[in-house]
Amino acid sequence: MPEQTPLAPEFISYEQVYAAFTPADAVATLRETLRNGFDPAGDQSRSAVPVENGEFLIMPSATSSAFGIKLLSVAPPGYHDNLPRIQGSYLLFDGTTLSPRALIDGIAVTNLRTPAVSISCIYDFLAGDSGNANDAAGSSAPLKVAIFGTGPQGRSHAATVESTFPDREISLTFISRTQPQDLDDRYHWTQAGSEEAREATRAANLILCTTTASEPILTKDEVSDSAVIVAVGSHSPDARELATDLVASATVIVEDMDATLREGGDIIQPLNEGALRTSDLLSYADVVSGKVQVARDKPIVFKFTGMPWEDLALAEAIADKVSAQG
């Protein structure tokens, strides 16, 4: 039998990803995946392996059409400021041939995926002042956004909000301890802990927490009853961005029960304190698919830590789009 030559995966760079695939595409892909019946509860677990100078994340997933794995290194805050804090690659396989199909820049996938999860879950709540979610993207009411954190995830969230709601008037304020020198002039910045920052969060329709904080940075008194809050920065049981009083007073949506109870300190700690019950929690999939309806009589909190299926869905969609463009 003649020796068979293995197929080499196509390399898709950071630049190619963003040239072919927008943040709005990423939001639509995740919503479509859940609306088509995908159950995140059947996903593979993420592994975190300590290494000498940081953490090694291993995220495998599989569907009927594809399977793949994302491999990332995560450095601690402040380590080698000249390098990205997160680095890595996504290796995508074809589900029919079992051949490696594409090797995709891991930072591009992660920077698209994380804010896409945020916005895909809470998309229908970002309507106008009426609170009706019949046409969130097309609402004419201004969308006031406060983002804690000015790193890659904070900025990626800003880009995703703008890409997903291109026809909305958006007022966006970044909040952090120090003012970044390279922040785009069209964004406003204010000092964390200042009265101006508190006014920004109280006025915000959408608050995005994308920090490396281990202690709460946001409390109940700092948000309105109609606010939608996403906590994405922490992925450890011992770290959280939201205070217990805020979580306990809100409608709480979680990415997946098992994943949240492993890594979601924003939810684990209020549960351990008796301020929240697991029966109170709604699932990301049920909210996006419309299986549950969410009342708008109190704040909404969405907590997630990232699951492998989200990266796989985006990696397959990215590879399809790059291939279609030739």
Structure in a nutshell:
The protein is of the alpha/beta class and 326 residues long.
Residue share in helix: 25-40%
Q: Tally of extended strands?
A: 14
Alpha-carbon distance between the termini? 34 Å
Pick out the low-confidence regions. Answer: 129-135
SSE string, helices as H and strands as E = EHHEEEEEHEHEEHEEHEHHEHEH
* Relative strand content: 15-25%
Rg from C-alpha positions? 19 Å
What characterizes the major β-sheet?
8 strands, parallel
Spatial ordering of strands, largest sheet: 9-8-7-10-11-14-12-13
Structural class comes to alpha/beta
Give the CA-based shape.
globular
Tally of helical segments? 10
Mean pLDDT: 92
Protein name: Ornithine cyclodeaminase family protein
InterPro entries: NAD(P)-bd_dom_sf (IPR036291), ODC_Mu_crystall (IPR003462), ODC_N (IPR023401)
Organism: Corynebacterium propinquum
GO cellular component, one term: cytoplasm
How would you summarize the topology of this molecule?
Blueprint: E1 10-12, H1 14-20, H2 23-35, E2 47-51, E3 54-62, E4 66-74, E5 86-94, E6 100-105, H3 106-122, E7 143-148, H4 152-164, E8 170-176, E9 188-191, H5 195-203, E10 206-209, E11 228-231, H6 244-248, E12 251-254, H7 257-263, H8 265-272, E13 282-283, H9 284-289, E14 300-303, H10 308-324
Parallel strand pairs: 1-6, 7-8, 7-10, 8-9, 10-11, 11-14, 12-13, 12-14
Antiparallel strand pairs: 2-3, 3-4, 4-5, 5-6
Helix pairs in contact: 1-3, 2-3, 2-4, 2-10, 3-4, 3-10
Characterization of this structure:
The model is unreliable at 129-135 (pLDDT under 50). Helix 4 links the parallel strand 7 and strand 8 (170-176). By secondary structure, the protein is of the alpha/beta class. 31% of the residues lie in helices and 23% in strands. It has helices at 14-20, 23-35, 106-122, 152-164, 195-203, 244-248, 257-263, 265-272, 284-289, 308-324, and strands at residues 10-12, 47-51, 54-62, 66-74, 86-94, 100-105, 143-148, 170-176, 188-191, 206-209, 228-231, 251-254, 282-283, 300-303. The strands form two sheets. An eight-stranded parallel sheet has the order 9-8-7-10-11-14-12-13, sandwiched between helices. A six-stranded mixed sheet has the order 1-6-5-4-3-2. The longest helix is centred in the middle third of the chain and has 17 residues, at 106-122. Helix 1 runs parallel beside helix 3, helix 2 packs across helix 3 and helix 3 (106-122) packs across helix 4. Pfam families: OCD_Mu_crystall (PF02423). This is Ornithine cyclodeaminase family protein.
